[in-house]
Amino acid sequence: MLGYEDFEEKTIARKEIFKGNIIDVYLDDVALPQGGTSQRELVFHPGGVGILAITPDNKIVLVKQFRKPLEKVILEIPAGKIEQGEGHTPLQTGMRELEEETGYQATAFEHLTSMYLSPGFSDELLHVYHAKNLTKVDEPLPQDEDEVLEIFELTLEEAKAKMATQEICDAKTIFAIQYWELLISKERD
After folding, report:
1. Buried/exposed 82-113: b ≥16 CB within 10 Å, e otherwise
2. What integer best gives the mean pLDDT of the chain?
3. How many domains does the chain have?
4. Which of 19, 25, 125, 178 could form a Cys-Cys staple with 47, CB 3.0–4.6 A?
């Protein structure tokens, strides 16, 4: 059986390419475990949180927004970046994003999973929570100034239909819908 050292690529040199508000980009020269060298383009991200929020009438809460890298509008679960330097935990970020983006609060949050979204080039770790016992807030936190969002509440079948048409096409939302479907099937058993 191969050990860690049989896979590890050792960094020889690192060059900063870009330092941004959301990501930092670097180019690493690496020594390959079998000999030789290569380059790796790396994106470092502070991490994010996604929230599976189901209304009392059993509908998933989604936000519709334009995603510039895709050049299209998609439906997603409420989500956001963990703010560094403010002491925010993933749960605090999730609670804030749920309220800012949807106007909902929850009385309980269950951590479902944490996943790396594209480990081939990025260290972004996304934490997914299930928000329970949702209630609408009279005066929710304001949305971010640079976001234009529309709230949708869909049944499971409607959400799956949006997956089929690619209106829902991101990993975190697909995961959340599949998890929700699992919950429903367990409740039926």
Report:
1. beeeeebebeebbbbbbbbbbbbbbeebeebe
2. 94
3. 2
4. 125
Domain range for 36: 4-44
Whether residue 31 sits in one domain with residue 59:
no
Q: Are residues 64 and 148 in the same domain?
A: yes
The active-site residue out of 5, 145, 157, 187 is 145
145 is known as an active-site residue: yes
First-to-last C-alpha distance (Å) of the chain? 41
Same domain, 26 and 67: no
β-strand partners of 35:
none
* Selection from 127, 125, 123, 118 nearest residue 44 by Cα: 123
C-alpha to C-alpha distance for 103 and 117, rounded to whole angstroms: 27
Q: What is the pLDDT of residue 147?
A: 80
Assigned token pair, 111: 């951590």
pLDDT tens digits, 101-137: 999 999 999 999 999 999 999 999 999 999 999 999 9
